Fold Bacteriorhodopsin.
Amino acid sequence: MNTVLTADLVGLDKIINSDPVAITFFMGYMAMFASAVFFIVERGSVDGKWKTSLLVSALITGIAAVHYYYMRDFYLETGQSPTAFRYVDWTLTVPLMCVEFYLLTKPFGAKGATLFKLIVASLVMLITGYIGETSGIENNILWGVLSTLGYLYIVYEVFAGDIAKLAKTSDSPALGKAMFLLKIFITLGWSIYPIGYMVLPGNLLSGAFEVSSIDLFYNLADAINKIGFGLVIYTVAIAETAKSRKAAMA
């Protein structure tokens, strides 16, 4: 009992004394949890074909909230980066974000093969990234390059592949706007992760930032990307639901 209380007080002390990494772990947990609740509640506001999209958004933020709870405790007790927890989180949530791309364009003709390719690319990106981050300095760059190839394929799909073509040929202004925003998330938001990887010792940007600051960047990126992704999907779902209901009343 005393040990648990002491750990709690140490964690509270770090947050009170403005440890920025500890604060972002705490804020990330709360923001992800609140977002998951929001997306679950709002499923009742959209048509049936969009309910799964909001459920996936809730799963993404809910899974992240659970991991952030444990990552926060790990960081507070050890002062070390919770790399394994983080990659478990990403391995679950990033493929789900790829599922969101599929669900977003499915009403406009997206095929299952596109979803399969996106998920494979995301897993390649994450698995090779984890190997590179944990296997030692001598292998960092090789595995980082392989991880980047997976990321670049996802970028290709969103900008010029099947996803982009479906968005371009759809008659939905809401989808067009959503794809524009998601492109920003993919290029700017997701780019934080490979940049963080390159800051590790032995990598291209080694020494550019303190390694201890990587968690700060990762935490902010996770919150922006995962919650932002869900909000974009929510916006499309609401707009398309309003459009279909208006047409039904006409």
Remarks:
- The two ends are 65 Å apart (CA to CA).
- The first helix runs from residue 2 to 16.
- Residues 2-249 form a domain with the Rhopdopsin 7-helix transmembrane proteins fold (CATH 1.20.1070.10).
